[in-house]
Design goal:
- It is a single chain.
- The chain folds into two domains: about 70 residues, no CATH class; about 220 residues, Fumarylacetoacetate hydrolase, domain 2, CATH 3.90.850.
- The protein contains seven helices and 19 strands.
- The chain has a seven-stranded mixed beta sheet with strand order 7-6-17-11-12-14-8.
- A hairpin with a 3-residue loop joins strand 18 and strand 19.
């Protein structure tokens, strides 16, 4: 079990950073005596020192709150960017190739390709753990996608694959909720460069449930060896492992950092495995509940209306 987990909780004065120890939550600034740790962004901007400060703090149970009595928010409020890897699991790529009667894709490494990403809105797309996400008036083909999310802990620019994981503060769980019927604009030729609409498809309000907390990277020895499961109304839909990633997290960080400086608090969604709704002809509807579990990280539950 992790020594502690980092979270954002709703206090009477607004969102604040919290440290979770043995199912009790402690205010991060009060626990460490560091005023700048009132927000998770404040903690992440001082991540190297913050890890030692948190570990050295004495978590007296009488000063904490029972975790089941606390409202958790999305763990980072607010990331400057949410980067999402596209088509990054071998089992998912094979699933979609079968669905569309295409031959299997070659390993993109073999032709010198790098990972590719799209961006979700850093504020409007986030949804809290336990939040209800309204979809019924927006999309009739809303899909689920479990994803391991990495949270950046220090500025990363031009980093090597070998050193890339040194820039990760920790991990959380995400659902890359997708409006499949909004991804391709109607009345436009399939060959037109204006056919795709990634904002409508991927970056609508509530399209990135995140949480429930951040597990520090030092408690996850290898992010490429984690089980992932997603249930819709208690029916298992996705069951895979991060070992199925085509481009590892380290490769993704390195590739992203070539042209963009990754900032503390930025979030990278690393792709989804097989079992998405579009491959089954199934989509979310009002009243559905989606539960996500990632090994060593935690469980994220959201409802849809």
């Amino acid at each position: 079990m992790a020594e502690y987990r980092l979270a954002t909780y709703q206090s009477p004065d607004g969102p604040r950073a919290g440290i979770i120890v043995n199912e009790a939550l402690f205010d991060a600034a009060r626990l460490t005596g560091r005023a700048s740790y009132t927000t998770v962004l404040g903690v992440l901007e001082d991540w190297d020192a913050a890890q030692d400060a948190i570990s050295a703090a004495k978590a007296d149970k009488s000063d904490g709150q029972s975790l089941d009595r606390v409202k958790l928010r999305a763990p980072v409020l607010w990331p400057s960017a949410i980067y999402c890897a596209g088509a990054n699991y071998a089992d998912h790529a094979a699933e979609m190739a079968r669905l569309h009667n295409r031959p299997p894709e070659a390993d993109p490494h073999s032709v010198g390709l790098r990972s590719w990403h799209f961006i979700k809105a850093g504020r409007s797309s986030l949804a809290d753990p336990g939040a209800t996400i309204k979809i019924s008036d927006y999309s009739k083909q809303t899909d689920w996608e479990i994803e391991l999310a990495a949270v950046i802990g220090k500025p990363a620019k031009g980093v090597s694959v070998e050193n890339a994981l040194d820039y990760v503060a920790g991990y959380t769980a995400a659902n890359d909720v997708s409006a499949r019927d909004r991804g391709r604009r109607p009345h436009i030729s399939d060959t037109s460069p204006f056919k795709a609409d990634w904002v409508a498809h991927k970056s609508f309000d509530g399209s990135c449930p995140l949480g429930p907390w951040i597990t520090p990277a030092r408690d996850i020895p290898d992010p490429q060896k984690l089980g992932l499961k997603l249930w819709v109304n208690d029916v298992l839909k996705q069951d895979s492992n991060t070992s199925q990633m085509i481009f590892t997290l380290a490769e993704q960080i390195s590739h992203l950092s070539i042209g963009t400086t990754l900032q503390p608090g930025d979030v990278i969604l690393t792709g989804t495995p097989a079992g998405v709704g579009s491959a089954r002809g199934e989509f979310l509807k009002a009243g559905d509940t989606v539960k996500i579990w990632i090994e060593g990280v935690g469980t994220l539950i959201n409802n849809f209306s």
